[in-house]
């Protein structure tokens, strides 16, 4: 294999000219003859008995050239790419320029990773939100825990809003029972809005054993066409009234729902965990802000092939999440009335942004000679093994070390940029109010 030329084309494309001659080609032509000889008909000879020279004399010297070229060019191209240290995104085209008994010359049109210019990545200005945890948030967390421990118990009194009544019912329109209008031992929360408007309100004040008649009118947009706008009477029997009871939030409650013995200690732990969550949110927001500035400072012409590959990745991830919900992408597109082309087009801007971000971070990593240690790789494999409950060696068969190393290098580049950013901290007081402090290094 010999690289005869490398020519830059438009849009991150290159033309790589490669020559393959000598013994490798001779052997490949001979192998093509042995492979195909029995299928080639030569007058006067039984299949497979004609010599290579006799076949070539009849069909031409180049009869086996195509098979020889197909056998040799993939490895020759790989060697040429490695020799020229090309970062190939896509093989666009292969064209055989010339071929004879000595060998052949082919031109591969390749899409390569584009040249990237990051104008500024040190000293990026960004704002980091500093969130505080309020007493109201702690109370809301406790209330949610209290709600989980809620009990529903039978009571001997009239039903009120918020109670659960157990009822038998049957509905009639024009004195005739209608399909779907009957139920037994149905648990209905008064005030939940589960039934037809007005139905639940008329059960307020009912006791166990009562048999009220409930008069309602079906909404004009009711799903059953034959009931839209119709007046109806429901004959109801109240079989039980149940009251929702919440436990008292005290030390005993805390012992039941946590590892703590006192409410005070539990509140401290809640506040700590909420703060940790908010700190993670703030860190994520800072990363987004830094990356947005980085992308603004990056100049690159992204090949269409890179964007399409990223859309492929997004589509695959979307399809996987659909399948976890019991649905396939084709069915989703059918339900939404969307074509595959329109679906993919909807991800184009996001895909382009993701590609540009990664290219920018790779450029920073190159310029700063950012590397990944063996320990970092080992730690990440261990982390993934724990996350997915799999053996480390099994994870290694799924995630190649080169891919993992590349991702870690990107992460290290981001950490470098954040470390060198000029971060202005903003204390969050209210939803739309901030208080900024002086710039500090992150």
Structural write-up:
The protein is of the alpha+beta class. It is built from 13 helices and 14 strands. Strands 7, 8, 9, 10 and 11 form a 5-stranded antiparallel beta sheet that branches. The protein starts with a strand and ends with a strand.
Low-pLDDT segments: 430-442
Radius of gyration from the alpha-carbon trace, in angstroms: 36 Å
- The total count of helices amounts to 13
Q: Level of helix content?
A: 40-55%
- Report the average pLDDT across residues: 92
How many beta-strand runs? Answer: 14
Q: Could you tell me the strand content as a percent range? A: 25-35%
- Biggest pleated-sheet summary: 5 strands, antiparallel
Ends distance: 52 Å
Structural class: alpha+beta
Order of helices and strands: EEHHHEEEEHEEEEEHHEHHHHHHHEE
Shape: elongated
């Amino acid at each position: 294999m010999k690289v005869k030329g490398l020519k830059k084309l438009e849009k991150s494309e290159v033309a790589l000219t490669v020559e393959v001659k000598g013994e490798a080609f001779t052997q490949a032509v001979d192998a093509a003859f042995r492979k195909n000889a029995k299928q080639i008909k030569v007058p006067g000879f039984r299949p497979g008995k004609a010599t290579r020279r006799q076949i070539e004399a009849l069909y031409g010297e180049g009869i086996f050239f195509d098979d020889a070229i197909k056998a040799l060019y993939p490895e020759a191209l790989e060697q040429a790419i490695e020799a020229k240290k090309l970062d190939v995104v896509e093989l666009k085209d292969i064209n055989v320029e010339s071929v004879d008994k000595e060998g052949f010359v082919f031109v591969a049109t390749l899409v390569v990773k584009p040249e990237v210019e990051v104008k500024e990545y040190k000293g990026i200005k960004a704002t980091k939100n500093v969130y505080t945890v309020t007493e109201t948030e702690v109370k809301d967390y406790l209330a949610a825990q209290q709600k989980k421990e809620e009990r529903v118990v039978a009571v001997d009194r009239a039903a009120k809003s918020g109670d659960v009544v157990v009822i038998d019912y049957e509905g009639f329109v024009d004195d005739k029972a209608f399909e779907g209008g009957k139920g037994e031992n149905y648990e209905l929360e008064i005030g939940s809005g589960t039934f037809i408007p007005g139905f639940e309100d008329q059960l307020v004040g009912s006791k166990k054993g009562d048999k009220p008649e409930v008069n309602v009118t079906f909404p004009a947009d009711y799903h059953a066409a034959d009931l839209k706008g119709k007046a109806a009477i429901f004959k109801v029997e109240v079989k039980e009234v149940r009251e929702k009871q919440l436990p008292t939030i005290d030390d005993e409650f805390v012992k039941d729902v946590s590892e703590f013995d006192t409410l005070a200690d539990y509140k401290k732990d809640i506040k700590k965990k909420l703060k940790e969550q908010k700190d993670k949110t703030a860190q994520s927001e800072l990363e987004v802000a830094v990356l947005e500035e980085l992308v603004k400072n990056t100049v690159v012409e992204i090949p269409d092939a890179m964007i399409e590959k990223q859309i492929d990745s997004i589509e695959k991830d979307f399809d996987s999440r659909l399948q976890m919900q019991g649905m396939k992408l084709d069915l989703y597109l059918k339900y939404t009335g969307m074509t595959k082309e329109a679906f993919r087009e909807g991800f184009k801007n996001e895909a382009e942004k993701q590609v540009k971000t990664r290219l920018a971070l790779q450029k920073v990593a190159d310029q700063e000679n950012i590397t990944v240690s063996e320990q970092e790789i080992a730690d990440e494999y261990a982390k993934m093994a724990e996350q997915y409950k799999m053996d480390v060696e099994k994870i290694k068969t799924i995630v190649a070390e080169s891919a993992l190393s590349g991702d870690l290098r990107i992460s290290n580049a981001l950490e470098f940029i954040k470390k060198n950013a000029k971060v202005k901290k903003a204390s969050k007081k209210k939803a739309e109010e901030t208080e900024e402090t002086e710039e500090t290094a992150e």
